[in-house]
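Page 37, continued from 36.
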């Protein structure tokens, strides 16, 4: 993921989707003191450990 830059909408979608997964019991991929799924997801995004990709449409 480090080679691909995401715009703010893609970033929000990725973090939101991951937060939902965490809220439903998915394992957390980083060590954190946070208990809020959205904050945990944001930390995971910042740590570049999320297994998400974004497929963009052709223009």
């Amino acid at each position: 993921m480090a080679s691909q830059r995401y715009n703010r909408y893609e970033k929000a979608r990725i973090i939101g989707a991951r937060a939902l997964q965490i809220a439903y019991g998915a394992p957390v991929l980083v060590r954190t003191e946070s208990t809020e799924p959205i904050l945990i997801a944001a930390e995971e995004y910042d740590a570049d450990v999320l297994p998400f990709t974004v497929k963009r449409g052709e223009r």
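The chain has a mean pLDDT of 90. Flag for discussion at group meeting. Residues 24 and 37 are 9 Å apart (CA to CA).
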